[in-house]
Amino acid sequence: MGCNKNHSIHSSHIETNGFWLKNNAIKANVEIRESPIDVYLVLKLNEDYPFSNIHLLSKLENNDVKISDTISYNFDDSKNRTILSKQIRIKTFKIPIFINMDIKGETLVEVAHAVRFIDSIKPVNKLEGILDVGILINKSNEKI
Length: 144
What we know:
Elements: E1 8-21, E2 26-32, E3 37-45, E4 53-61, E5 66-74, H1 81-85, E6 91-101, E7 105-113, E8 126-139
Antiparallel strand pairs: 1-8, 2-7, 3-6, 3-8, 4-5, 4-7
């Protein structure tokens, strides 16, 4: 996938049918020719989503780099307050996963959710209220 007019290097998504299964990670295997890059998870939620945050397990790897991280993203932070305060049934968030990564070559990006209820040690297997999950990779500092 090469760069196009909107500066996106790669964009993919999975169909969710209103929920995201724990074992259904979204993956992108892409050839990175220009760096640095930014990787985002694009998440579309509806009013059935039962939490004010999300926990994600992320992985980025190629021949030179292998990174795994756990990300906690709060939908109620000040940047998102205006989106949440409106009477909108569907909300879209662009969650930064890896920012300003100086990598090149064939690269795998993988993201899965790790959400759990506060009184449980097991993750939620079927996370309701997720309409769409996508990975967006673009050149760093490019407006998207």
